[in-house]
Design goal:
By secondary structure, this protein is α+β, with helices and mostly antiparallel strands. The chain has 13 helices and 12 strands.
Length: about 425
């Protein structure tokens, strides 16, 4: 797989948002995902896996479906869990693990349903008899036959049949709900797929009607904030984000996360409070997604360095990779508050003051401790160009003093847990 262009590398480092760079990253990740599906088939054959013939058949049908209806099939193959399954299964095959290549059949069935095609596919039912169709929903067939005739949304096997409606639940069928965010953009709320997040213990089960109503209400409100004051961020989100995965809420506030394995997914706890804070979450997580995708292609740190360091936004010591990820994400946060603080009063000014100083301190650590390779040094130099603009934003002494106190309190709490450190 090719790497990013020099133009995109510079844009990711130096520009607050760049839709063209985000599109290039997304395209590279999609090609990687398709390559992994092919890799699963080839590795199954090379390792003489019992599923090899089933995986090859499913992949052959998938390619035929794609040739006939590329847009519909691409909506399935671009769903983040397809890439997560393919990557996990490919690694499992290399390591003689327990993942089953025959699960590729479920992807093919989903593609057939999405495209309205007719085909025959053999699938692998889960241990509980269910069948997850990535990007669409989960089926509980009520039978055991795994040879399926697909005719559009109708599925028929020897001892069961079902109608699959991607937009609504039905007996034996749970659909992944799609949330209209705004301007024709929508995301899947993936609360069913077992591959929706690398750590199963962090995600929640099926979202109920009341919580779903909150998601449907607050997401468009946050989008309105982003569209009004952060247009570049919305363009990057449209280019990359395909799904949201509900995760367990912390004792206080909200949580959010991104993961390289599930590129295109943002995990977050149920949205609460002001839509501005949800908008900030998107500005934060799209930075993580971009850097994850870039660092998969271009190493930026010296991975032989295993020391850990203080980060002003985390309760735990962080390695070089974590420091750079945090600095990049919070650079996006500082730029968010640079644009937004005039509408939010003192709280917004405090956020801007605190995180811009935090980003500067972490970039200093990365450079002073020589944690970056040459590409990383170049990338951080571009980040400093952006940070300089944020640092030049005039702020009042009240906001600056409150930010310094919050930073000092965080450092004191960190040192109480981990000991004093000059790193």
């Amino acid at each position: 797989m090719k790497t990013v262009s020099g133009k995109t590398f510079r844009a990711l480092a130096e520009e607050p948002a760049n839709a063209e760079a985000a599109e290039e990253l997304n395209g590279l990740q999609v090609r990687r995902r398709l390559g992994l599906l092919k890799g699963v088939v080839e590795e199954s054959k090379a390792s003489d896996h019992p599923d090899a013939a089933l995986a090859k058949k499913a992949y052959t049908v998938l390619l035929e479906l794609e040739a006939a209806a590329p847009a519909a099939v691409n909506r399935i193959t671009r769903h983040p869990t397809v890439g997560a399954w393919a990557w996990r299964t490919f690694r499992s095959l290399r390591g003689r693990g327990g993942e089953r290549p025959a699960r590729l059949g479920a992807i093919t069935v989903a593609a057939a349903v999405a495209s309205g095609a007719t085909c025959e596919v053999r699938v692998l039912l889960d241990d509980d008899g269910g069948l997850m169709l990535p990007g669409l929903g989960r089926l509980s067939p009520g039978g055991t036959s795994e040879d399926i005739e697909v005719a559009g949304r109708s599925l028929r096997a020897r001892d069961w049949s079902a109608e699959v409606d991607p937009t609504a639940d039905a007996p034996g069928w749970e659909a992944l709900r799609r949330i209209a965010v705004g301007d024709g953009f929508s995301v899947v709320l993936d609360d069913l797929d077992p591959y929706r997040w690398p750590e199963s213990g962090r995600v929640t089960s099926r979202v109920g009607p009341g919580a779903l109503a909150t998601w449907r209400s607050l997401l468009p409100e946050a989008w309105h904030v982003l569209r009004a004051n952060h247009l570049g961020v919305t363009e990057e989100i449209v280019a990359i984000v395909r799904a949201l995965t509900p995760m367990t809420a912390p004792a206080e506030g909200v949580s959010s996360a991104s993961a390289r394995e599930t590129f295109g997914t943002i995990a977050m706890s149920a949205p609460t409070g002001s839509p501005v804070w949800l908008a900030e979450t998107f500005a934060h997580e799209i930075q993580h997604a971009k850097l994850d995708a870039l660092m998969h292609l271009v190493p930026l740190i010296r991975y032989e360095r295993t020391e850990t360091y203080y980060a002003p936004w985390r309760p735990d010591p962080r390695p070089a990779h974590g420091l750079l990820q945090g600095a990049y994400a919070y650079l996006g946060v500082t730029e968010f508050w640079q644009r937004q603080h005039r509408y939010e009063g003192l709280r917004g000014r405090i956020e801007l003051a605190r995180w811009r100083e935090g980003v500067q301190a972490v970039l200093d650590t990365l450079e002073d401790e020589r944690l970056l390779n040459d590409a990383g040094m170049s990338f951080v130099e571009g980040m400093r160009t952006r940070l300089g603009t944020v640092l030049a934003e005039p702020l009042d002494e009240e906001a600056l003093a409150a930010a310094r106190q919050a930073a000092a309190d965080h450092r004191a709490a960190w040192e109480a847990r981990h000991g004093a450190s000059d790193r």
